[in-house]
Write a structure and sequence with these properties.
- It contains 2 helices and 12 strands; from the N terminus they run H-E-E-E-E-E-E-H-E-E-E-E-E-E.
- By secondary structure, the protein is mainly beta.
- The radius of gyration is 18 Å and the shape is globular.
- The protein starts with a helix and ends with a strand.
Length: 178
């Protein structure tokens, strides 16, 4: 538990200090990505806004619906479907955009590797989860994208912390026009 008390502040420190260095404009992405990117993911129905205060740092805000046809509780499985709305906030630091640009690879809409600290809230049971992930986002053509991230995480429910995984897989469309 002592290790976790040191890892979480270290991740938070890295994700808040590194963006300060991102203010240094060493290169310019071509074409320039907008300061806010709106997306819809079809894999897990999610509405996403990626807000970019600097060139290598973004905040991802998302609203999604977790659905299931089976509801498991402590006593017995139930076949009643349910929908659980969820909210996510995820600061991201893209650490290889300059290298991708120099190699002639696309950096449109933040195509590249990133590290992040996703925070999720799931309603109505109020499940909180936080984790540290590494991920890759890629823009296909002009409007399509896919995103994959994974890492360790913790979930707070029933007044206890549980070790869990953190991450996301998304395949969808970008609503902005370049």
């Amino acid at each position: 538990m002592i290790i976790m008390k040191r890892i979480i502040p270290a991740l938070f420190f890295a994700l808040t200090i590194l963006p300060l260095q991102a203010q240094n404009r060493i290169f310019d992405m071509e074409p320039k990505s907008p300061s806010m990117i709106a997306k819809i993911s079809f894999i897990a129905p999610k509405l996403i806004a990626e807000i970019a205060p600097s060139q290598n740092f973004t905040f991802v805000v998302g609203f999604w619906l977790k659905t299931s046809f089976w509801d498991y509780n402590e006593w017995a499985p139930s076949s009643q479907p349910y929908v659980s709305p969820s909210f996510t906030l995820e600061p991201r630091y893209y650490f290889n955009l300059e290298d991708r640009h120099h190699k002639g690879k696309t950096t449109r809409y933040y195509s590249g590797w990133y590290i992040s600290l996703p925070f999720n809230i799931e309603f109505p049971d109020l499940l909180y989860s936080i984790g540290g992930t590494i991920g890759f986002q890629y823009t296909m053509g002009r409007r399509w994208y896919w995103n994959l991230s994974m890492g360790p995480g913790f979930t707070f429910s029933d007044s206890r912390f549980h070790f869990s995984g953190a991450g996301d897989f998304g395949l969808g469309i970008i609503l902005n026009k370049m």
